[in-house]
Target: DNA topoisomerase
Amino acid sequence: MLLKDAFVLDVSGEERNMVLSYGPCQFPTLGFIVERFWEIQAHEPEEFWTINCSHTSDEGTASFGWIRGHLFDYSSAIVIYEMCVQEPMATVQNVRNQEKLKYPPYPLSTLELQKRASRCCRMSSEHTMKVAEELYQAGFISYPRTETDNFSPNTDLHAIAHEQVPHPVWGSYAQRLLNPEERLWRNPSNGGHDDKAHPPIHPTKFTAGESNWSQDHHKVYELVVRHFLACCSQPAVGAETTVEIDIAGEQFNASGRVVLAKNYLDVYRYDSWGGSLLPTYTIGQQFVPTTLTLDSGVTRPPPLLAEADLLSCMDKAGIGTDATMHEHIKKLLDRCYATKDANSRFSPTNLGEALVMGYDEMGYELWKPYLRAMMEADMKAVSIGTKSKLEVLEGCLQQMKACFLDARSNKVKLLDAMGTFFARSNRPLNETQNPMEVVRPCGACNDSEMLLKRKPNGGFMVGCRSFPQCRNVVWLPGSLSEAAVTEQICPTCVPGPVYKIQFKFNRRDIPPNFDVDHLGCIGGCDDVLKELIEITRFVNHNQTTTPARGQNQTQTTSGARQGAPRQDLHTGFRSTGQFTNEHTPVVNPQARGQSQTPSGVRQGAPRQDLHPGFRPAGQFANGHTPVVNPQGFRSTHTQNSRNASDPGQVLCTTCGEACISRTANTEANRGRKFYKCQDSGCGFFAWEDELENVVPRGRGRGGRGGGRQASASAGRRGGTQGRGRRGRGRNADANGMTFVSATGDTVHGCCFACGDPSHFANACPNRGR
Model:
């Protein structure tokens, strides 16, 4: 399923050769990004109110927060605030002083290296690993791909720290760390992970900086050294004070912290730990707040995922390993599923969001981390010996097979999701374009070729290669089972070359006197193809497709917006009552259910067609004569009582809207009625008596359209023929009915079920008897 062939993706350059594929690691990773993005989009800000209080004394200022936090009901908030204002005296109810410790980090693993480099050094995980690998190859740090975050008891940590004493920046701290009198040394904490292969990342060789190092090499080496020295240090010590007060029965509190001993914070500049120093308070003390305010605010959505946050989500869900997580993130960026801004925060692209939406619509949570997490857990079970490789492999294959079959059977949902963000290219799925698919030059844009393409539903069409810039399209009959462009060129049709197409029809959809195999031309010269197209109701494409989620405009069967200009296969296939002369008013004589033309274009809209010679019965070949067509393209059995329109209504030939009637009041034309378009900027104008001279207004209505006749007489053969698919003419049946093709010619066929020439088998009343 080549989605990039089915849709016009907003990519350029080398990105056009990108690969679109599902990956059990990359899609859950993308899912985290899209899910956060959807949370932000779905967030609706809500206003809230909170009471803030502050007190200033000689020792400083303390800011007290409301224990309730905030309220979303303004009336309740203002009532409580007024109570506090009326009785503003604050009473200290509790004062807590306690020692707080801030512990140094665990020994450095690959995941922590990537997260801290992203937060502290503004480096991507992929670039961090690339630089770390180069430092490892040069012998300055240990192997950078490890899940271990605790040192073996046999590791000589003092020797590693001693190598850093000569460094001009952190060398003095390393010397203090090794001095027993400072009591700064502390064995590193155990992070609880050991891959049994490599120790935590640590420096292996001293350097004050190499001449060939980039700034990023310096940053990564410094991070590794400072992290190692910090994890061998004592925690920072602080004293925290919490004061609780009461104002009119409402509780408020304030906290302050003072750092007593920084310890590891002296070397590990990536962590900060501080706070404000509170004035001294005693229990029972009373004071009047310096400020007491009712402040409002609004809720805010969570921020976009930063790279460190994304790595944490992947680690928590068991997606990938420490050594491969950065590769999954890079693949998302390379394949244009997501983008990263200057703050290292991720947003999904239209492509990434469409893919996740498609899998979400399927109902099978292929974009969730559960499936991959189970696989990772099973592989870990194999490594520790609790499961066999064969058992895990068989279970994994069964899971993936079920997912594959489910995705394949529901691929239309993925296509609908893609259609929400991208225009369809009308290029066939599962096929690549080749020169043999070119049918003819495009007569609409004159800049590209018309290609034979397969539609998603299995049918065929001929569309312009330049879609969506050019929307010229030819819908081939749905009765086709096969179609292939040949090397034969039609000697008649222009502009050329027009290559003939080898058609194969379904036998049940065509009369018995026609062959299922036909070598035809779509240029307009093929009479057999004309009849087959008419018989198989080629022009009966009057149903609009359902818009994809997120699109408001109604789509026609060709994907073009209603009312937009469109080019069809044959010039003669025009909507009921539409003129080839765009400056002549259109009378809409249809009685029932024909508000749409077969192509879904609004009646009366300007339209360009492809080939002359194809006209429905009852339409004039003279483009300057108004046309009355009481039945249009539908067979009589499709006429019903819905959507009845005024048989005498005049439509504007410019914009297709219904005209309004007015009476002239000028001296020369006083009392004379005319029609004008409702759109003031359109400019359409026509006298009523000029229309009536050409097109009679009165006409009878027969049952289901069988008794309708047109008052105008013209056609390819010049005889008087009934207008519509059935009308009066030669070879009529007992009811005076005969079949008429799109060209106005009588169709020589009969029902192959009962032999009656008045109908075909698909409408046979004797069927099943």
Observations:
- The first strand starts at residue 7 and ends at 8.
- The two ends are 45 Å apart (CA to CA).
